[in-house]
Design goal:
Jelly Rolls; 18 strands; Phage tail protein beta-alpha-beta fold; alpha+beta; 13-stranded mixed β-sheet; 335 residues; 3-stranded mixed β-sheet
Length: 335
Amino acid sequence: MLETRYTELIAKKLSGEINSEEEQQLDAWINEDPKHQEKYNQYRFVWSDSKIKRRSSNADRIFIGISAAIQEENPSYSTAPTKRRFFQITAVAATLSLLISSIFVFDRLKNIEEASAPSEVEVVVKSLPKGQKSKIFLPDGSIVWLNAQSTIKYPKRFSEHTRIVNLIGEAFFDVTEDATKPFIVKTDKLDIKVLGTTFNVRNYQNENNTDISLESGKISVHTLGLDKKKYLLSPGEGLSFDDTSGSVTKFHTSRSSFCWKDGTILFEEATFQEVIDKLSRWYGVEFVIENYDNSRWEYSAEFKDEYLDNVLQSLGYSKGFRYEIDQNKVKILFN
């Protein structure tokens, strides 16, 4: 069971009511333990798939939908509007506590739309912590390179008409061509539809943008929600979707969108925070920064299959800092 504080923050995050300070607290909790990341991703998948998301706009109404699902499966559970229950409903902390208290309830919510289906297809969920990457072969022969701190969900057997996978984090896809079965990558805000192509999707929960970069073939990107739009991409083109405003920006892709799957870290005029975030995810470490003066960084470099110590030596020489590595903790000390 998660602590009440973090159930509150997850509820606010999913319902879009979290402020920046609370979001930083939640991000820190998620990053401190791979199990926290995995749990959060599971809840986020359920939230994305369920009807509750589409018919709810705030944390209180999430509770009502969850209670209905629990009541249907467990008639002995009472949601009568007593004074005590009223305060639980109106408190965001109570909103999600029931959701995360039972994995059975998760499954019920996740499959609510398929309740009438004659049979269930086994679902595969693969999650990676910081510092790990994986090559995954899908049932149709397509290949996925899953980046660190990412989760992918797909059926053990694709349907007759579509090939659908869900992604949180970052992955590169090499999709087997099949004109009769479109391949669809689903994120919280977008559907990316292809027939056979290679492309990258970056959709980390602590980043405000979802980025799609096309290497070969063609893809169509569909925004979800009320303002549905469709964008077509050709090789060398990318699309960045602002998860908050819903705005879309097209860009020209670079090697940095694809080279990570081959073991290459590429920085292109990166800020200090971008460098730290990428190294933290890549090597599975946490950074402690001392005496940083907030000076502007535009750091460019390339490292292939390098140890963290070698990368930090190069960085430290270029930017004027010392460092200490203690297992999965790295201290950066500026001069």
